[in-house]
Every structure is written in C-alpha cells, then in structure tokens.
# Entry
Amino acid sequence: MADADSPSSNTAEAGGSPVVMAVAWLWVAVPFLYGLYQLAEKSSKLFE
# Structure
C-alpha cells in the first residue's frame, strides 16, 4: 500500500513530467525575476 504523500504519486497527480514542471516554473519565474529587476532599478532612483 503506497502512501498518498509520497513524492512519486504527487508528481503524477500534479499533471506531468519533470520537464513540464520545469518549463512551468520557468514560465512563472522569468517574468517575476524581470519584474523584480525593474522594480529595483526604478526604486533605486527614489533614493538617490
């Protein structure tokens, strides 16, 4: 009997392979990091 919280069952239930998960994380992380960069760049001008 397999545990419902095991990592292998969570990956299968989450809907995909590790490649799909990596692409999904990049799809979110890249614009987020770019937004943080833009925020830091523009907010630094407030403190000059």
Q: What stands out?
A: The chain has two helices and no strands. Helices lie at 7-14, 18-44. Residues 18-44 form the longest helix (27 residues).
